[in-house]
Write a structure and sequence with these properties.
The complex is a heterodimer of chains A (184) and B (351).
Chain A (H helix, E strand, L loop, with lengths): L11 H5 L3 H10 L5 H4 L2 E7 L9 E7 L9 E7 L21 E9 L13 E4 L14 E9 L2 E12 L5 E14 L2
Chain B lengths: L7 E5 L4 H12 L3 E6 L15 H7 L2 E4 L17 E4 L10 H19 L7 E5 L27 H18 L5 E6 L1 E3 L5 H8 L7 E4 L8 E3 H12 L7 E5 L7 H12 L3 E4 L4 H23 L7 H4 L11 H5 L13 H10 L2
Parallel strand pairs in B: 1-2, 1-4, 2-3, 4-5, 5-6, 6-10, 7-9, 8-11
Helix pairs in contact in B: 1-2, 1-6, 3-4
The chains are: A mainly beta (184), B alpha/beta (351).
Chain lengths: 184, 351
């Protein structure tokens, strides 16, 4: 290891292998993703946390949701067949042939006035939304999302927390997103 | 237009893991390659033994059988070359000192004698070993820099240091200009022995677990970067008669390495409570050394557990690559995580 490190450009797979301490560095240096760069798209995601082993792979999509407040847009998750990192992300389908979309969330730039304001350089993915019922454990999730490299809108880094009673937050996992396909 | 003649490079140990990659890099650069290796290496491709003669035959203009332990076999090599890339070595933590010395030190001396004083030879390029500095815990856990005196801790590394010394002495006598590199943990496609264990050691495990305090660093260098550095430094005027550590910028602890492999193998990773790793290794070492010697001397085979490799586990290996970077060399894989997936894929595709 040298003192003067080369600026490394990680791709999606390599970033999925980074430990939390390095991901945290990237997260703090990240920038707020442009709304126009992610709405209408789905991203392949990978949870790096040990606690998230059961759901390593997932997909997240972003869409315009007129029902939400001004400045907000919508997002959802898609179930993905769990497999090794080097294998393709394959969406699980409903009987109707539609991808299994679930756990919808609201998306907006982090607001200093709210409890979830740890990273002002991020978007907040707030699962406390009209489309995710309160009985769904996913409604407790609060994810932050940043763009890793300013010139690469295809690679995003997320950090998931669970909202606990009393305004406390429990860190769950980092996740890495890579642009995959057009969404809804 | 006068056609420039191709530079001629001799590569020893050409069929091996590192040698075959050096051959590829030289071929891409337009060198005429004299590939040399022991007789067994030329027979058939063997992934477990990291021998790839069919690839080397396609790229080299001459393929020669030599044996560093038998200096008379070196006569088949051409008397004049532009570069010698001396990659061949007996890499074994199980071999006896006599065998290691005969191949790695006396063999190098014999090869040097063939090219000493050659007016055509531009550079003798020696692939050494990053382990020659010894164990970090015995050196105040300092970052290893090239100006630190070696302190090898086992017979293999002692033979590598004596090999370096032999080359430097020839340089002092004005017989050659040399460059020595000290690669750390070499990984990448076609790896055998240690590199293979690194990637396949955890394959098939249902769970990967490691104690939380296993926070010593592992240094890495991708074999392609190693081969690229060989050619780059061999042609670099400021690299003449210089030693270079060869390691990338990877910042990875032993525990993080285990977690990385768990993610790649798609198995759970469990962080165990801290254990006194150093004390455990020290306590187990006499038994490990006994089984090692019993296997080698009585059973006449390599032991399944090599004590010298186990001794590395509690250590924190950190190497400086500042000197290398100051030459302007850039890594294709500055972080091992960038090439771990493709390396593991290579092992999957090739059994």
């Amino acid at each position: 290891m040298g003192n003067d490190k080369t600026e490394v450009r990680y791709d999606h797979k390599a970033m999925c292998l980074l430990p939390d301490r390095i991901l945290e560095d990237f997260f703090r240096r990240g920038t707020v993703p442009e709304r126009s760069a992610i709405v209408g798209w789905e991203f392949d995601g990978y949870n790096t946390g040990t606690l998230a082993f059961a759901i390593r792979k997932f997909r997240k999509g972003y869409y315009e949701e007129p029902a939400y407040d001004a400045g907000e847009f919508g997002g959802y998750n898609v179930n993905i067949r769990q497999s090794r990192l080097d294998q393709p992300w394959v969406a699980m389908m409903k009987k109707s042939g539609e991808p299994q979309r679930h756990s919808f969330f609201r998306v907006y730039p982090v607001r200093g006035s709210e409890t979830d304001n740890y990273y002002p350089n991020a978007l907040l993915l707030n699962y406390h939304s009209p489309k995710t019922p309160a009985w769904n454990p996913a409604s407790r999730l609060r994810d932050y999302l940043v763009q890793v490299y300013p010139d690469n809108p295809d690679l995003l880094l997320g950090k998931a927390y669970a909202a606990l009673p009393g305004g406390k937050r429990l860190f769950v996992s980092f996740f890495v997103l890579q642009r995959a396909c057009k969404g809804i | 237009m006068v056609k420039k003649s191709r530079e001629v490079s001799l590569v020893t140990g050409a069929c091996g893991f590192i040698g075959s990659h050096v051959v590829e890099v030289l071929a891409a650069a337009g060198h005429e390659i004299i590939a040399a290796d022991i007789e067994a290496a030329w027979k058939t491709d063997s992934i477990p033994q990291a021998r790839y003669p069919s690839l080397v035959r396609k790229l080299a203009s001459r393929c020669e059988t030599i044996d560093l332990a038998r200096p008379e076999t070196l006569k088949v090599l051409p008397a004049e070359v532009d570069y010698v890339f001396h990659v061949a070595s007996l890499f074994s933590y199980s071999a006896t000192w006599d065998t290691l010395y005969r191949v790695n030190v006396e063999g190098t001396r014999a090869l040097l004698a063939r090219y000493a004083g050659s007016a055509r030879l531009k550079r003798w390029f020696q692939v050494g070993a990053g382990g020659v500095y010894g164990l970090p815990s015995e050196r105040q856990n300092r970052v290893f820099t090239e100006d630190m005196a070696p302190n090898p801790t086992n017979d293999y590394l002692r033979s590598k240091w004596e090999q370096e010394f032999t080359v430097m002495e020839a340089g002092k006598r004005g017989e050659i200009q040399w460059t020595i590199v000290r690669p750390t943990t070499v990984y990448g496609p076609r790896g055998g022995y240690g590199a293979r264990k690194l990637f396949l050691g955890m394959n098939g495990m249902a769970v990967v677990a490691g104690p939380a305090n296993l926070k010593g660093h592992i240094p890495f260098i991708h074999v392609e970067d190693l081969a690229r550095a060989c050619l780059y430094l061999a042609q670099h005027p400021q690299a003449a008669n210089q030693v270079f550590n060869l390691n990338d910028d990877t910042d990875m602890t032993n525990l993080e390495y285990m977690e990385t492999m768990a993610r790649l193998l798609h198995v759970p990773f469990v962080k165990l409570p801290p254990v006194p790793a150093r004390k455990l290794v020290d306590a187990l070492m006499p038994a490990l050394r006994f089984q090692h010697q019993f296997c080698r001397d009585v059973l006449k085979k390599n032991s399944p557990i090599e004590p010298d490799m186990i001794a590395y586990f509690p250590e924190d290996f950190r190497y400086s690559n500042e000197k290398l970077k100051k030459t302007g060399f850039t890594f294709r894989y500055p972080d091992a995580r960038m090439a771990f997936p493709s390396t593991l894929q290579w092992y999957r595709d090739n059994g």
